[in-house]
Amino acid sequence: MPDTIPLAPPPDAADLLHRRHRVPAAPPPGWNDVLATMLAHRSVRHFRPDPLPAGTLELLVTAAQSASTSSNLQLWSVVAVAEPARKVRLAQLAGQQAFIAQAPLLLVWLADLHRLEALAAARGVAVEGTQFLEEFVVGVVDAALAAQNALTAAESLGLGGVYVGAMRNLPEQVATELALPPHVFAVFGMAIGWPDPAVDGDIKPRLPIEVVLHREQYRAAPDTAEIGRYDTTLHGFQREQGMREVDWTAQCIARVKDAAALRGRDRLRAALRALGFALR
Amino acid sequence: MPDTIPLAPPPDAADLLHRRHRVPAAPPPGWNDVLATMLAHRSVRHFRPDPLPAGTLELLVTAAQSASTSSNLQLWSVVAVAEPARKVRLAQLAGQQAFIAQAPLLLVWLADLHRLEALAAARGVAVEGTQFLEEFVVGVVDAALAAQNALTAAESLGLGGVYVGAMRNLPEQVATELALPPHVFAVFGMAIGWPDPAVDGDIKPRLPIEVVLHREQYRAAPDTAEIGRYDTTLHGFQREQGMREVDWTAQCIARVKDAAALRGRDRLRAALRALGFALR
User: Fold this and answer.
1) Counting one residue from A and one from B, how many pairs have CB atoms under 8 Å apart?
2) Among A93, A130, B87, B175, whose Cα sits 20 to 30 Å from the Cα of A185?
């Protein structure tokens, strides 16, 4: 195969499991390059200027299409943006984040109810089901499953990337920039490129597994000791990375404190209505 | 490592790419076990009765936690259901699908705004941002990214699984069964187990890549020639699999024709309101 990108040998399982939770890990019941790739995930926001090898975009989208999709409806699409001026404009719409323009490829993942409506209209059928919140959720989930496959695929090739939730800051302007028809919503963006080795963030620790994993039924009260341990773990991580130290719990609370904390996304429902989603 | 599950050797790249789109594929710019695992995905609905090796659940959840999460809020949880009687009851709530009770493990993936609200309440803070549609979308996307990692991880270990969207048929009853507090929503289920080798479905072809991939801007009119080719491709696939032959376009249109076609999920908005989601 031309331009083959070699896969680095898989790091040690115990090391990767430890870096994700910062507690000694039991030996896993299996290990392979797939698990190593996923466990090694970190968001990359600094890219080398080098372009992607020919065929990379198509390979990532094929991986995305290989994800499950509700009833095989395939209610998603993706716009691949590579033109520098368009990336700059989208960066301005999505929180002024410089890495969006710096990355060689910006993927904008869409919940797409339009395609099916257009196919129905071509057969003289008016569909009503796409007006319901349910099909909006199906489109969002379909887009997310596809996107996650694409990012893991990119990482398996040595590329890096990051989700861009700020693509929801100004949904109507994003729709205009990408010429989206009604009933298509840019759920999030994703910047993809070669990680800049000079700026190499580490694997971010997540909540203790027993905080997110419930057995048989939901335990309503979060374990405050476990949460306290995580606050401490993240402080240590922030020190290691030379980041400003902030308490995870306090940071999360601040992020959802009130409408203003949502940085414009408190008007998402109005924006979706303007884009043609009835959300009945 | 005990109970090591061997990874099968990766099938040929050209073969897997062809089976996904049923057209001759250009050589990809890279290939590895990660791509092979994702490209080989098929939904598995028939399971051997064998249990999963010890530690599998924790490994899948660690893979899930390694996925990106908006602002590290981690607005998701998962309930692992293994008790036979509970699986039977959940199967009854989710479209009477027998494989849900047959699988050794049922994962129910949750958009979870409760945990953060409870942490805030413990600090004497009332948060308002979780009342907005935006944070519902964040929870749904977080749950979907996590779930997709878990399914890919399972497949890398030789396990199989399938998403269960019918977990949204009766959201309030599912919430009662799983003791979900307000502001927690079961987005979908996922049945996981060892695939029954006697019932071995093939890789389902997806839409031609140029139908879902847009370059720089959205092309509003779907290419009817490409869609017609896909209808033909799926007819061929259905014949191969001994399935009833149905036109993909007609099947999709029927699935979203009207409120009745949504099989109860047309009341999702009312159900979410009952579960405490204001969706402002």
Assistant:
1) 424
2) B175
Residue B162: strand pairing partners: B191
Determine the residue among A22, A33, A34, A72 to mutate to test chain B binding: the one whose Cβ has the most chain B Cβ atoms within 10 Å: A34
Confidence check: pLDDT of B107 > 50: yes
Question: Are B39 and A86 a contacting pair at CB < 8 A?
Answer: no
Name the residue among B35, B140, B168 with its Cβ closest to that of A156.
Answer: B35
* B41-201: CATH number: 3.40.109.10
- Contact list in B for residue A224 (CB cut-off 8 A) is 122
Q: Which residues of B touch A204 (CB under 8 A)?
A: 72
- Which tokens belong to B200? 């071995």
User: What is the torsion angle, in degrees rounded to the nearest 10, for the CA atoms of residue B220, residue B223, residue B226 and residue B232?
Assistant: 100
| Min Cα separation A198/chain B (Å) | 22
Q: Distance (Å, rounded) from C-alpha B33 to C-alpha B219?
A: 34
Which of B137, B241, B258 should one mutate to test binding to chain A, selecting the residue with the greatest count of A CBs within 10 A?
B137
pLDDT-derived band at B11 (thresholds 50, 70, 90) equals low
Centroid of chain to Cα A157? 18
Segments making up each domain of chain B, as ranges: 41-201, 205-262
Q: Give residue A10's pLDDT.
A: 47
Residue B236, both tokens: 């061929």
pLDDT tens digits, one per residue of A192-239:
999 998 887 889 999 999 999 999 999 988 888 999 999 999 999 999
Give the model's confidence band at B264: pLDDT under 50 very low, under 70 low, under 90 confident, else very high. Answer: very high
ipTM of this predicted structure: 0.96
Q: Which residue of A has its CA nearest to B168?
A: A134
Which residue matches tokens 């805030």? B120
Chain B interface disruption, residue of A256, A265, A275, most B CBs within 10 A: A256
pLDDT at A5 over 70: no
- Cα–Cα distance between B82 and B88 in angstroms, integer? 10
pTM of the complete model: 0.96
At A12, is the pLDDT very low, low, confident or very high (cuts 50, 70, 90)?
confident
Radius of gyration, CA atoms only, chain B:
20
Structure-token match 């997310």, residue found = A144
- Whether A193 and A103 have beta carbons less than 8 Å apart is answered as yes
